Structures
1.
Amino acid sequence: MGAEIIAATATKTVYRDGDKAIKVFHADFPKAEVLNEALITARVEETGGIKVPKVLEVGVFEGEWSITFEFIEGKTLEQLMEEHPDQIPDYMEKMVDLHLSVMAKQCPLLNKLKDKMARQISDIEELGDSTRYEMQTRLDSMPKHTKLCHGDFNPTNIIVKDDGTFYVIDWVHATQGNASADVARTYLLFCLKDQKKADMYMDLFCKKTGTAKKYVQSWLPIVAAAQLSKKRPEEAELLNQWANVFEYQ
Ligand SMILES: Nc1ncnc2c1ncn2[C@@H]1O[C@H](COP(=O)(O)OP(=O)(O)OP(=O)(O)O)[C@@H](O)[C@H]1O
Ligand SMILES: [Mg+2]
């Protein structure tokens, strides 16, 4: 059976080949990042209790690095939300519950979220020295936790099987750290597409966990700055605005 393309970005292409999903990284993609993604996914898989596609193989496909995962047959939660807008409240509820089940896990060998964010913030030159310094100070003062954080938890990274089981994919940004920081990131990712969904998500998380909204919001400028370091052009404008809100807080 020939492989068919199921998703493509500027740096990678995902193919389906029977019961396998093959993520192929373009030629100039750093090898260490490919191996890191496979390692992080394997660590999460070994944690148990979270439905993730198993890593089957790391290799080279037509001269490019690739990771082969178990293929999860279903639709992304993003597709489902588009197809059934009337069910969005129910999907949101399930997505928050899924997020909570991830955060309930510990994965002690992953990098610390705070260390990663500190590195990312120091890399963002466009923010200016004094903003970066203030942000590092704020980051230092935030509570240290060791919860499993996905790092890119959004509906494109959730696959729902026909039997209703939710799988979480794309673990490359996973770390251990503060759950509210991970929720702040999901909120920002929703904001880039749909403010209403973002607010729904924030409200549901805060209600279910008894977390003060202000606390999650206090992470927003820091998370926005860290997210800027991913250099996704479509995110730059909004993230810059959020990162600069910091100065007024
Ligand atoms: N194991 C899998 N089973 C089924 N579909 C998959 C699988 N892995 C990826 N896909 C499909 O490919 C899409 C992109 O995959 P993935 O999220 O891993 O990469 P990405 O979003 O390009 O990566 P990044 O967010 O790191 O830039 C997913 O949204 C999903 O539709
Ligand atoms: Mg993805």
Note: The CA atoms of residues 152 and 173 lie 6 Å apart.
2.
Amino acid sequence: MKNQAMIKKFDRQSKTYDKRRGSDPTDKYRARIIPEAWGKVLEVGIGAGGNFPYYNDDIELTGVDFSPEMLKAARTAAADYPFETTLVEVDVEEVQFEEDSFDTIVSTLSFCAYRDPESVLARFRKWCRPGGTILMMEHGESTNRLLAGALNVLDPVSMKVLGCHQNRNISDIVRHSDLKITKEERHLAGCLYMLWVKI
Ligand SMILES: C[S@@+](CC[C@H](N)C(=O)[O-])C[C@H]1O[C@@H](n2cnc3c(N)ncnc32)[C@H](O)[C@@H]1O
């Protein structure tokens, strides 16, 4: 799918994500993983800033997203939080950052959308400095067989309407990369993946 078509899909969802900040069903999980971000933080696919309420005050945040409408909402919201925030409109699959630039890389609910998630992980490996942390809270394939079957059926529609795959096994994708999972949790019938990862 052409990028412009994907960007439009996410632009259309920006108001929903803006309203949900702090009251999304995923917030209790965000509250457990996001406070572990430290130092220079890169958040990919930052959306409308759904993780802002959970960051510590002393981080230095760079947020990237290819949707201008999501970034507009994030920019307004960022003014309410004390940490320093830089927001950049770029494609995560194309942007270049220096090697070892970040102490923490955060990705929440964005791996469903990438054309090539394996290459995004290779980018994380390059951008995260040794000793740094990669924190992921993603959705994908369920551990419940019935639900997994239903999500497989739904996948083409979800991709067409939302720009979002429903059946990726995020743990497997990370496990097959050069990164190391140090802690893993699955919630919500296994659809929600929480991964603490090191390079
Ligand atoms: C489902 S939303 C999640 C937003 C936010 N991470 C959250 O947890 O609330 C996915 C976000 O990833 C962004 N995104 C998807 N693919 C992208 C890409 N290749 N480059 C940059 N942003 C991307 C979308 O624009 C959207 O804002």
Note: The longest helix spans residues 145-162.
